[in-house]
Amino acid sequence: MIQEAASAGAAMDSVANSTIAEMSVMEIINESNSWYILIPLLLMSGYAIYIFVERFMTLKRASNDEKQFMSRIKDYVQDGKLDSAKNLCETTDSPVARMVDKGVSRIGKPMQDIKASVENVGKLEVSRLENNLSALATISGIAPMIGFLGTVLGMIKVFYDLKNTGIKANFLEALSEGIMMAMVTTVAGLIVGILAYFFYNFLVARVSKVVQNMEAHSIEFIDILEEPGK
């Protein structure tokens, strides 16, 4: 009898495992009936991906090598061709070019005024580079909380079904939906939160590199302006 019971149990486990393996992600979601939790998470994940791609492309353009640009600016400034320098800045789409453009337009004024103007433009450019990063940080914190909300709601459903079903033949069936909801929403919330957290930290690191590049070139530009006076 014990051997037969063990064999029956093994058979049931095998059937259950094969059934779970055959279920697709959509089927699991439908079975859990957790769309009202998953839809906000899906929207958040889409927005996080959009921010990441848009910011990544922006930072990639901003981190282009500026050595040739600064070399031409140096030649124009030393030759007194300020109009050519300004035209080059206006036709170059980068934070460094916009900083230098402001500095070139202030040439002839005290050096402190030029430095202050370049620094102010730099602050505005940094703010633009960090645009929407706070949204990624918010998603990375909120998404797991929404997932845990689904977990709590799923467990409430479990106990509600337990109260109303009692020990009946369909006891496990009555509880499965609530338990699946709890697990599915937890997993979804953690996945979205982890992705958003990764995107945020990756972009913050890229922003830091661009800012360092801007600072280096702003110092180089000031040095160019001070060279004739040496």
Explain briefly what this protein structure is:
This protein is mostly helical. The protein has helices spanning 2-22, 25-32, 35-62, 67-78, 82-90, 95-105, 111-129, 133-165, 171-226.
Question: What structural category arises from helix and sheet content?
Answer: mainly alpha
| Amount of beta strand | under 5%
Low-confidence stretches: 1-23
Output the helix-strand order.
HHHHHHHHH
> What is the molecular shape?
rod-shaped
The portion of residues assigned to helices is over 70%
Work out the helix count. 9
Radius of gyration equals: 30 Å
In total, the number of strands is 0
Mind describing the biggest β-sheet? none
Mean pLDDT: 79
Oligomer: single chain
Give the distance, in angstroms, between the N- and C-terminal Cα atoms: 101 Å
Molecular structure report:
The protein has 230 residues and is mainly alpha-helical. The chain has a domain at 62-130 and 219-229. It is 86% helix and 0% strand. Helix 3 runs parallel beside helix 9 (171-226). The longest helix is centred in the C-terminal third of the chain and has 56 residues, at 171-226. It is rod-shaped, with a radius of gyration of 30 Å. The N and C termini lie far apart (101 Å).
Topology:
Layout lengths: L1 H21 L2 H8 L2 H28 L4 H12 L3 H9 L4 H11 L5 H19 L3 H33 L5 H56 L4
